[in-house]
Amino acid sequence: MFGKVQAVSDLSFKVQPGRVTGFLGPNGSGKTTTLRCLLGLVQPTSGSARVGEHDYRELSHPATVVGAALEASGFHPGRTARGHLQVITDAAALPAARADEVLALVGLTEAAGRKVGGFSLGMRQRLALAAALVGDPGVLILDEPANGLDPEGIAWLRSFLRARAQEGRTVLVSSHVLSEVQQTVDDVVIISKGKLIQTGTLDELTGTGISKVRVRTPKAEVLRLALTAVTEHDIESSIEIVSENEILVIGIEAAKIGHIALREHVELHELTPVGNDLEALFLDLTAGGNPGGAA
Amino acid sequence: MALVRSEFRKVTTTKVLLWLTIATVAFSALNVVLLVFLTPRAMDASTDVNFLLDPAYVTNILGAAGSSSIFILILGIIGMTGEYRHMTITSTFLVTPKRPRVLIAKGIAYALLGAALGLIAFASSFVVTLIALSREAHAPIDAIIALQILGGVVLAFAIYAIVGVSVGALIRIQVAAVVGALVWVLIFEALITVFVDWIGKWLPGGALDAVLQTTNVTGRGGEDILPTAAGVIVLIGYAVLFGTLASLTTLRRDIT
């Protein structure tokens, strides 16, 4: 099963089951509108948004097909977490006991009987996830689920989404901060100004960059000279001297630097791939999308 | 039926039903007290009239529950507008993307709630009437009339609750819908009736009076109201009219 989206301006992409797909773009780039079109909440001015083969509005049991967590504010403050979910289980003709099952899944069992008005933003995000899972759907659509989560919460979300994807579900996660979902997503769909900028696996995206390695050594000058022998033949590689005992090697992989260092009997104190600056790459890709929007 | 059950769950998991039930019970009782004790009586030195000896007046007291109808209207309005206010409409429409179904389910659920509250309101005013009249000279209480009034209150409240839901669907901003409805029923209808007297009975409050067959709501006299059956039809007509208008307009709007 896969979800296919056509919205905003001829925006079209596929989302694969069993994988977590990041739906990325700066604020105001049309992510939320796209998702809401797909879910029948917003009427596209032309064309259609479909989930699999069907218009969402034509699904007879949508909660069992697509689960969505759109925003953390859609709760009645006086209703308990369990009550909120049972309103949904009732409407979806699911057993009321399902509410407690999904609360356990998101770690809110102890807060089940508490009013949502007293919930932190992180707890609301978890409750929204629980609501999305009520119908045990094959597709999960989550709009900025990491918003308002502390680092611990983000780590939890990461493993949670990973687990849902491993169950074979299709997971689509929107975010305006790539670094937030970078360690979570397998595939990325990047949009800007309502248009598709790039789509593919995260590895493909990172593969477009060149490796950078930070090296700390007391014999920086010796190593630099040894590495220069390599960089001379490769215009894409270079060496930056950061300080007396630290250099930044661009275009040579860490293993190869280590090998050269061993050959030259250079003692290493640090050999760290700094990787591509994905965030910078993301900003480059979406540049011009929304001035100042990519916070 | 799943959707109706969900609507019952929504209304029973918040406090608004409790408060409006209390208001209905209290207001129905209060009206009886006012009608019984603030009326000219024989034991009053200044008058030799005793309203309590007039069977029509006793009927009026029994119908005091009808004055709580405004709370039922508000219950329906809050039931619908609350979804927009708290943005629970998002999850409601996610589970039920065919939106008119939500409106219909709400109408059914609130009609049943209205009927139940009608029963409670009548019970409240009836019990207080019996207590208040127990130590007074009064015209006898006619059981048939009492049952007719009970039927009228239950039916009126059931339909009025649907009107509230429909109004709430049309005017999605809670404060605007509640204030607008109160101003309409309590002020505007009474005013317009003063200037164009034939129109009042065709308006929602007038139709409600016809179902209740009392003069409590807008102070209209007995001759100026429609027959009960016509009142039922006109009131249902308003509920359907507002609901249909909402389905064609506000209910279709994007949820963002």
TrEMBL record, chain A:
Family matches, as InterPro entries: AAA+_ATPase (IPR003593), ABC_transporter-like_ATP-bd (IPR003439), ABC_transporter-like_CS (IPR017871), P-loop_NTPase (IPR027417)
Q: Does the keyword Nucleotide-binding apply?
A: yes
Specify the ABC transporter domain's residue ranges: 1-218
Output one GO MF annotation: ATP hydrolysis activity
Q: Which UniProt keywords apply?
A: ATP-binding, Nucleotide-binding, Transport
Give any Pfam family that matches: ABC_tran
**Signal peptide start and end residues:** none
Family as reported in the entry's similarity comment? Belongs to the ABC transporter superfamily.
- Fetch the PANTHER family from UniProt: ABC TRANSPORTER, ATP-BINDING PROTEIN
Name recorded for this polypeptide: Unannotated protein
Q: What organism, scientifically named, is this protein from?
A: freshwater metagenome
Q: What is the lineage of its organism?
A: unclassified sequences, metagenomes, ecological metagenomes
TrEMBL record, chain B:
- The portions of this protein that span the membrane are 16-37, 57-78, 108-131, 143-163, 175-196, 225-248
Protein keywords: Membrane, Transmembrane, Transmembrane helix
Name of this protein = Unannotated protein
Gene source species? freshwater metagenome
The opening ranks of the lineage are: unclassified sequences, metagenomes, ecological metagenomes
